[in-house]
Design brief:
alpha+beta, five-stranded mixed β-sheet, GNAT_dom, ATP-binding
């Protein structure tokens, strides 16, 4: 049975292991960066199968108008859409329906985002980072 939590502690090694067993293309060799990703998100929900981290959604919100979802990762050997949907719903329920969720997607996840009710938007720009 999958347990969802907004308070469970996640180590950088657990997150690296999750990313390594998912479709995410994020590098896993910089544990310091992964630690900062965990520590500095103001919204972090996780999915657990006993003591195994199987999913995480990470976001930042002004708690007035929008929440930027910067990470949604689910292990490949678990039900992707079901766990993703539950993690997203938990964040949206916490923030309330007056908050827009904005997802930064990788090409492989676009279909999943659309299945969860996200609409594709073209009104964004980015300055790419160096890994």
């Amino acid at each position: 049975m999958i347990i969802y939590s907004a308070t469970a502690k996640i180590s950088s090694k657990q997150l690296a292991n999750l990313i390594a067993h998912s479709k995410s293309q994020r590098p896993t060799n910089d544990l310091g960066r992964l630690t900062r990703m965990i520590r500095n998100a103001n919204l972090l929900y996780s999915a657990w199968d006993d003591d195994r981290l199987v999913g995480v959604v990470r976001g930042f919100s002004d708690e007035a108008t929008c929440c930027y979802l910067s990470e949604l990762v689910v292990r490949d050997d678990y039900p992707q859409l079901e766990i993703s949907r539950k993690l997203i719903n938990k964040i949206h329920r916490e923030l309330g329906s007056g908050i827009s969720l904005v997802s930064a997607v990788i090409p492989d996840s676009l279909a999943t985002d659309e299945k969860m009710g996200f609409e594709q938007i073209d009104s964004g720009f980015q300055l790419p980072r160096e890994y």
